[in-house]
Amino acid sequence: xxxxxEQERVWGGVLLGGKSSRMGQPKHLIKQDGVTWLELAAAKLxxxxxxxxxxxxxxxxxxxxxxPRVPDAPGLAGPLAGIVALLRxxxxxxxxxxxxxxxxxxxxALSWLLAQRRPDRxxxxxxxxxxxxxxxxxAWYDSRCLPLLEKLAASGPPSLNRxxxxxxxxxxxxxxxxxxxxxxxxxPDELRRxxxxxxxxxxxxxxxxxxx
Length: 212
Description:
The chain is of the alpha/beta class. The chain is 24% helix and 16% strand. It has a single domain, classed as Spore Coat Polysaccharide Biosynthesis Protein SpsA, Chain A, CATH 3.90.550. It is built from six helices and nine strands, in the order H-E-E-E-H-E-E-H-E-H-E-E-H-E-H.
């Protein structure tokens, strides 16, 4: 079991995503105000965590070339492959995970997520509606969640929604004013209709540290 010092250490992981077949272009390279979504995600996390790492394959903006990069876990698919890879790579820290296609993430939503951590919680997975799906791609995972994720990966479909009901998994509804942070954009039509830059975003050149 992680000790109290380890529980306080949080790193941030940005999931680059898959083939982006519905969007027709790599979503992490879509630009908002001249800056890629990937850079924006990394900058937002950098203000809340000790270290930011990138998970998955794909071209990187030159501004992020110095960040640690973690390949997806072999033999796994979807976001589960990226999250398992992050926890295997650094098993003594917890992870604040963010997908690259969540352009409306508010800094307050990240603070809210971190405030939900408890010693008995293995993960905090938001749920926007009481009977709706979990939102595992902007969520917090403790290092102790890895065995449960490994078990999930070894049997059945690689859906993170299967974590619901497992011991130590906290499912909680975010405050209404923060819920747009979990709105993802998957298609060109959604991109055209999306109203971006609804809040003041952090500077993309925010300092991000390499692991020691």
